[in-house]
């Protein structure tokens, strides 16, 4: 039996970014908002950075290629590669920044950010409400990339917090 990691022992080598939020919506509705490219484009991304393009192939081995239009006028591309899909319950994927051709690119503002992230998103329903939990880990990362990821936890909390606020507003519209 392994002992859980204590807060004092968390470091760049074992850090898992986790954020979750409960939404006043059934799981099926939350799942569709996350996996339908049209719906996803209406809420996903940091506040003020709308999705200007999205193309999804929701199957194991498929992908989602998207473009975020930044307030500066820059365009940031990203890609999800689906590794596991349990409909309405769980998505496991590898994510990365990319170019418009879906080729892996470095983070536009953080050159030592991990090239790839392992992402697990779970959807659990209780009493008609859905909790979405997101876990990210640096994937195939160097020591420097893991350290950058670890140091970025506050920024990730802020970014994903804003993204979840946008999802909440989207779901409230019905």
Which labels suit this protein?
disordered N terminus; seven-stranded antiparallel sheet; globular; 174 residues; 7 strands
Q: How would you sum up this structure, described in words?
A:
This protein has 174 residues and is of the alpha+beta class. It is built from 4 helices and 7 strands; from the N terminus they run E-H-H-E-E-E-E-E-E-H-H. The chain has a 7-stranded antiparallel beta sheet.
Write the layout of secondary structure elements.
Elements: E1 17-23, H1 27-35, H2 37-40, E2 51-56, E3 63-69, E4 75-86, E5 90-98, E6 116-126, E7 129-139, H3 143-151, H4 153-172
Antiparallel strand pairs: 1-7, 2-3, 3-4, 4-5, 5-6, 6-7
Biggest sheet layout? 7 strands, antiparallel
Query: Unreliable segments (pLDDT under 50, ≥5 consecutive)?
Result: 1-7
How many strands in all? 7
Structural class comes to alpha+beta
Classify the helix fraction into a percent range. Answer: 10-25%
State the order of secondary-structure elements, H for helix, E for strand.
Answer: EHHEEEEEEHH
- Euclidean distance between termini CA atoms: 45 Å
Mean pLDDT: 93
**Inertia-based shape:** globular
How much of the sequence lies in strands comes to 35-45%
Summed up, the helix count is 4
Query: Over the alpha carbons, how many angstroms does the gyration radius reach?
Result: 16 Å
């Amino acid at each position: 039996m392994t002992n859980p990691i204590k807060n004092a022992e968390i470091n760049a080598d074992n850090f898992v970014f986790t954020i979750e939020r409960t939404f006043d919506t059934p799981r099926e509705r939350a799942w569709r908002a996350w996996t339908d490219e049209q719906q996803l484009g209406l809420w996903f991304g940091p506040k003020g950075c709308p999705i200007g393009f999205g193309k999804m192939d929701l199957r194991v081995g498929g992908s989602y290629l998207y473009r975020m239009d930044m307030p500066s006028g820059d365009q940031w591309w990203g890609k999800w590669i689906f590794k596991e899909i349990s409909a309405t319950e769980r998505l496991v994927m590898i994510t990365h920044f990319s170019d418009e051709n879906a080729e892996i690119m470095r983070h536009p503002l953080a050159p030592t950010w991990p090239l790839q992230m392992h992402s697990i998103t779970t959807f659990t329903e209780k009493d008609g409400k859905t909790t979405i939990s997101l876990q990210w880990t640096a994937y195939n990362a160097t020591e420097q990339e893991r350290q950058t990821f670890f140091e970025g936890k506050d920024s990730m909390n802020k970014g994903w917090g804003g993204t979840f606020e946008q999802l909440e507003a989207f779901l409230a519209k019905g």
